[in-house]
From TrEMBL:
Keywords: DNA-binding. PROSITE patterns: HTH_MERR_2. This is Putative transcriptional regulator. SMART domains: HTH_MERR. Signal peptide: none annotated. Gene3D superfamilies: 1.10.1660.10. Pfam families: MerR_1. Residues 9-77 form the HTH merR-type domain. InterPro entries: DNA-bd_dom_put_sf (IPR009061), MerR-type_HTH_dom (IPR000551), MerR_fam (IPR047057).
Length: 135
């Protein structure tokens, strides 16, 4: 009998290994309501394809700097009535906000770089003056 890929199941160890995170992190996301594994008769967690996909989205969201609350809203965890269109719109709003933050940070770093280069130039000029006086 062939296994049905739609019913693929993962243990917490499988997911931890695949995504290079600790089982504790996965349990944390479960505690926050972002994952909902089934339980075996021995009370072992069994994750399905949907949980795996959500975990992938959670980790991507964290990498992009989103909060867990923002991630939950983007993947439709905060409002069961929210459809895909609303999820996409929420994701776009959060994406625009994050892009603005990134652009502001880049601009701040450019200003800092200019300031440091200006100070460096002044210090090098002063150093040259002092070395000329010593000759």
């Amino acid at each position: 009998m062939k296994s049905d890929p739609k019913n693929k199941r993962y243990s917490i160890s499988d997911l931890a290994l695949e995504f290079d995170i600790s089982p504790r992190s996965i349990r944390f996301y479960e505690e926050k309501g972002l994952l909902s594994p089934k339980r075996t008769s021995g009370n072992q967690r069994v994750y399905g394809r949907r949980d795996r996909a959500r975990l992938k989205l959670i980790l991507r969201g964290k990498r992009f700097g989103y909060s867990l609350e923002e991630i939950a809203e983007m993947i439709g965890m905060t409002d069961a009535e929210k459809g895909e269109v609303e999820q996409i719109r929420a994701s776009l709003v959060y994406g625009e906000k994050k892009l603005k933050e990134i652009r502001d940070s880049i601009e701040g770093l450019r200003l800092l770089e200019r300031d440091i280069l200006s100070v460096k130039e002044k210090l090098l000029k002063r150093l040259n003056e002092l070395e000329e006086e010593d000759r």
